[in-house]
Amino acid sequence: MNRIITTLCFLLFVVASAMAQRSINGTVTSSEGEALVGATVLVKGTTRGTVTDINGRYTLEVPANGTTIVVKYTGYSTMELPLGTGNVVDFVLEDGTTLDEAVVVGYGTQQKRTITGTVSTIKGSDIAQLPAQSFDQLLQGRSPGVNINIPNGVLNNPPVIRIRGINSINLSSIPLIVIDGVPTYTNQFSQNSAANNPLSSIDPNDIESVEVLKDAAAAAIYGSRASAGVMLITTKRGKSGKTNLTYNNWVSWTQATRVPEVLNADQYLEIKNEAAANASLAGPQYFLDTIGGNKVDTRWADYIYRTGLSHNHNLGISGGSDKTTYYLSLGFTDQEGMIVGNSFQRMNSRLNFDHKVTKRFKVGGTVSYSESKNEAPNTGSLEGGAFATAGIGRLAFVLSPLVDPYKYDADGNRLPGLSGYNVANGALGVGKNKQSVGFLNPLPIIDLNRNVSGGNQIQANAFAQYQIIEGLNFRTQYGVDNLNGSNEQFWHPFHGDGLSSNGNATNIQVANRRWNFQNTLDYNRTFGDVHSIGALVGHEEQATTTEGWGASRTNIADPFFSTFQGNFTTIDPVANFQTKNYLLSYFGRLNYAFRNRYMVTANLRQDEYSAFAPGNQKGIFWGVSGGWTVSEEGFWKNTIGDWFNYFKIRASYGTVGNNAIGDFQSQYLYNSGLYGTAPTFTWTQAGNTDLSWETSKKFDAGIVFGFKNDRIQGEYTYFSNLIDGLILFAPQSPSRGIPGSTIPINVGSMINKGHEFALDVVAVRAGKFTWKTRPNITFMSNEVTELYNDSDILATTSGLETTNITRIEEAVGSIYAVPTLGVNPENGRRLFQKKDGTVVQYNHAGGATRWTKLDGTAVSAPSLVADGVVQGTALPKWYGGWDNTFTYGNIDLNVQMNYAGGNVIYNGSKAGLRDQRFWNNHQDVMNRWTENNTGGTIPRVVFGDNISNGSAFAISENVEKGDFLRIRNITLGYKIPFASKYFSSLRVYGNVNNAFLFTNYTGTDPEVSSNGNNNRTPGVDRNTVPMSRTFLLGLNLNF
Amino acid sequence: MNTTISKFSLLAAFLLVAIGSGTGCRKELLTALPENQLAEAVSFETPDRFLSLLNGIYAQCKQGNFLGSRYSVFTDVRGEEFLNETGNGVTGLQTWNHTVVESTNEVNYIWNAGYQTINSINIYLEGAQANSRNLGNDALLANYLGEARFIRALCYHSMVLIYCRPYTDGNGSNLGLPLRLKAERLAIDNDLARSTVAEVYAQILDDLNFAETNLPATPASATIRAHKNAAIALKARVYLGMGRYADALAEANKLVPAAAPFKSPTGVAHELQANVKTVFTNYTTTESIFSFPFTTNNLPGTQNALGYYYNPAPRGNGEYSLNKAGSGIVADSVAFAVSDDRRGLIIIHTNNKPYLNKFAAGPQSTDFGPMIRYAEVLLTAAESEARVNGVNQRAVDLLNAVRTRSKGTAYALTDFADADALVAAILKERRIEFLGEGLRNFDIMRLNNPFPAKANVAAIPSSSNTYIWPMPSGERQVNKLLLPNP
Lengths: 1039, 486
Known about the structure:
The complex is a heterodimer of chains A (1039) and B (486).
Chain A (H helix, E strand, L loop, with lengths): L1 H12 L8 E9 L9 E4 L5 E3 L5 E6 L5 E5 L6 E4 L8 E3 L8 E4 L2 E4 L7 E5 H4 L18 E4 L10 E4 L12 E4 L2 E2 L23 E7 L2 H4 L10 E6 L5 E16 L8 H14 L11 E2 L2 E2 L4 H5 L3 E13 L3 E13 L6 E14 L4 E15 L16 H7 L24 E2 L2 E2 L13 H7 L1 E20 L2 E20 L12 E24 L3 E26 L11 E27 L3 E12 L8 E12 L4 H4 L8 E13 L10 E7 L2 E8 L8 E14 L4 E20 L10 E25 L2 E18 L6 E5 L3 E6 L7 E4 L2 E4 L6 E4 L5 E4 L8 E3 L10 H4 L1 E4 L5 E11 L2 E11 L2 E4 H6 L45 E3 L2 E12 L9 E15 L20 E2 L6 E11 L1
Parallel strand pairs in A: 1-7, 13-16, 50-54
Antiparallel strand pairs in A: 1-4, 2-3, 2-5, 5-6, 8-9, 10-15, 11-12, 13-14, 15-16, 17-20, 17-55, 18-19, 20-21, 21-22, 22-23, 23-26, 24-25, 26-27, 27-28, 28-29, 29-30, 30-31, 31-32, 32-33, 33-36, 34-35, 36-37, 37-38, 38-39, 39-48, 40-41, 41-42, 42-47, 43-44, 44-45, 45-46, 48-49, 49-52, 50-51, 52-53, ...
Chain B lengths: L1 H25 L11 E2 L7 H15 L8 H8 L4 E3 L8 H4 L8 H26 L1 H4 L2 H26 L33 H18 L13 H15 L2 H11 L20 H4 L8 E5 L13 H5 L9 E3 L23 E3 L5 E3 L12 E5 H16 L3 H13 L13 H15 L6 H6 L27 H6 L8
Antiparallel strand pairs in B: 2-4, 3-7, 5-6
Helix pairs in contact in B: 2-5, 2-7, 5-7, 7-8, 8-9, 9-10, 9-13, 10-13, 13-14, 13-15, 14-15
């Protein structure tokens, strides 16, 4: 639509001239080969020009003094070509932005030139066609200030999205995601161990652009929901002109990377029997075995990871007449993960249409339907699951190599059916060994259990817009966003999670219903090229209900059944939740610009939100910003304006909020349950009627610049975000017996500060060769400045292992561990340092005196609470991305990197990989201390030792630096020239995703997040599956 | 154009109605209440809710992290009777091998669950009295308050036994628990110092005396709700633990006649069942004085059931086998003869190890969690009798009542040279009779005996700082007045 306006405006200024010396013609196409309709073609230095027709063709009369033709088109870089002797000049425009382009902002659009807030735009074309389940996975490194972590290789695991760091301690730090004007749902939506990211409903191919609103000036219009920033997703719309038919397809292969190297059978035997002897167990405990004459040496990871095959299809039709335009798309994706049994499917369709009833009256709408299905075994890799005994992330490295997953007869044939699994006493069968060899056998779990989290989402909205007078538009929009989840879980009674309930089938339905009603009155006029005025007032209401219901059926009637609908003797209700919230808002915005030089913007929003107690529901949020485009001044234009064509200074300040608390969090509530067969009421929630939103006070200042006619564009921003009134679940002495031992209070504060840099450079343009490079980097820090009673907040990974601390003057969720000082070369014991400086050592075989000082006197055990020390921030101090596109004729090559560092990671998996119970160990355990290897880096092995290497409490030995550089994407494409006979264009390409990782981190991956999106426990790598690497082949076809 | 304008006017009018009046109606959405949870303000509004809240207290007390199972498992596996089979840190490994520290999960979880129950009781005691007219039945109110205070005594007693030095070490002069006796709702009063062990016991006895007075003679629901005899039986146990044997005897004697047949003369007519196995299949016989119920709709939850810990797969997870070597009572084939019926509550699994089979339901564990059995009252009476009056026939008869019920060889008066010998036999009988019922820790610690060595775990003398659990880290961080255990 913006393109049409641009075109129309342009026509007003064009005066056809008959004074031309010669006639130049040609075509304007995109780099994908698409004809660009309505592109502006100008003779440089004049107002003479034209626009391209529906085939992208133009004809232009050029005066004698005309030497260069300039072509502009929204969404593409402006291109200039000198006139030679020929009369045909074709333009192939590269994706890019120009300052005249309209940028989507809250409840409207604004010219990039006049924006004084901090808004980054990511183009849909940058993220389409890459291997992913959801678009947010693809935003890594693409915008300054935006840090995205993929938690691990589980398909559709929601990425950790942080705009300028963590913006809350207990509430969500996920930005508000708004799709075509209607806020949508985010974060883990699954009710079982299959991951489910609601944002995967959107086909990345349907996205036109993603706008990231970072400062208060840009985000204040979203008021109490904007504390963590806002992402505005705009989907593609049709353009009048010829019908455009596109088909995009890719096929990919994905594999696990950096799987831990564990001991083989011989090494395991050596280590564990040595450990047994050191623990004074009588004789060897573990023994080699053979099956059919072959030594048993099981590599468990080989049974758990695979090469997953995926394919993706997207068909799009768009076009329309002068009055009506449409965009229709269909998508299908079927993806296999790197983990056996992990898959993702989505079918989606979208219709966006716009219709002009009259010149002044427009209507339009969007209907999008998506259906998806996620299936995964229990990976132990989602938030809260790190210590699941059935979590195959850990089983892949913890199980003994001395036993086989299967049982065989005397001839070496696998026994049939269930008897063919090596299982005994509810655990992995021990075979000839005297000690256990594993928690569970993962294979029957993978083969027999099922976890599916499926869903469907309808996102639809309709709008009407009426131009009351020139520049004054009234717009009304009603939208719905209904997200339904259906979760199916079946645990077979044979082994694993289903054993203790003799089979368990749990189905849970979740329904999210939302309606959103917006009305805006928007005024935009420019008077005499001097005064540009924009004004917006609006009203918005949004109501959301969330309901879940389900049942768990246990004690299977017959193992024949494998679904909820089969017969089980017991049924219990589960996941019954029922909440709702309502937000009522009024807002406004004023822009003023003087000759495009001086700009001011003010935003104001009032929200009333139902989750707070009456009296505390209403809040006012605001933002002001100003900018000075210095390069528009005469003194600039006349001096350096030729090469330094654009320079803007801007600053903003304002307040926004975070209201992402539970819908009834302010209330004191009792739950009902059972005592035997009698009903009960039990106090389950301590509320707080004084509760209110968290407030972010955001300050931003920066510059935007362009050199050499915007060939080099860049920006720098300083930001500081002081978040006040953080809702803390204030720790109460557990002896007070308050549910959860916490009460929510607005009491904390913290500050995020940093610098963002970004460049967008056409580094080389030589003949057919161009190199465009777009680096960005953000440096930032987080500091907690106030907590309830100044008390530390300790946080655990999966409720079991304390790994993080939130403490005043430290970053939120810093890594916390007891200091260790290596291994005592005299006796091979791990050395720990207590708070008072005492160095103590641990001997698991020491009976009543396991903990001793170096002189041998007994001493009490160190503990994390008493002796823990902050090891460093878990949040990257610097992060960014660097995108490079090389084109040579029909060949294009894209290399995209992302990087982060300055943080530490708690490598909890390392504790597991060195644990001296039956657990298999990392290869590094071969360098354990022995009397002949007193320099060993691993403590003397003692069977059963779960202390020395960090299984009992976190130790600094397992803290590592998280710096890394990743080659995230390498894409090589080729436009097949001869194909143009049959199609408008055909491009084939190959891509490697997560191609290379450069890091000193020894765990699976420095980006891993065992705790998902949790603010308090970032930077923990505990028992999760690694990342994947994907190889992809694809094609883009335009008919 | 005119029609468009009129259409637009129509639309505008409609929208104004929608925004204006609609918003007014929708303002109600701003004050939504949950539909599946009850607001505090109305929690004592009806007599039914008085009862539901009371049942909520019982339910909280029997939660997996407290008396429903884990407390019982953890206190038993500290002793010598069980061997850890799975090495799993979340099912009591560190408790079993005496390596818990203040941040160990069970050290925190038991504490939290216990005090949550206590606070629910304190809220109930205040709320029920303040809203008594909504119940409109003073006699019933007295019963309810008695039940609540019985549970509070049970909670404090269970906790003081594991977090504090025994009463018998210094006559209760050591650090006890923080005594929380008021309803706690708001973000205040985090700091509270520990009372002495003696003060905690005084409170327990006060609660039990109140309960004895106010509880009904027969429970509202057999076995699973408190009644007078339950309060008396618990009081006998408390006095026994304090070493106040005369008091223990006096309490026990309220329920035990001077001579056989031993059957409670007041309240519920408690007596031993003919076969001890009956108690573990029919959970509501007169032998079970107080137990916590579990049903298929009210299961203990994952890794919480007694059966999960003690039954081998597939009925449980075989977390602990019985210690058939050295110190375990199972190894004692003299006192615990092969022909003893109670051997029938043990099975030898395919791995050749013995497992406790008292809580045999499984994998859905619907076994009740036993708290107090009449057999315990008899043995408490026997031990107190022996300690107060020396070797005497009644003590031997009481011991034999429990012993011969299960075909154990009867003792004769002449078998015991002195009171110590008789007490030793009674203590051994308690190990046989109450194997896996949560009393082993109590019996070791009240006598300041060491925890015997087992497998590769060394003995823990009573002088060791690991003899009792440390104060939990969660409490230590917030409650600034809380002193750690030495």
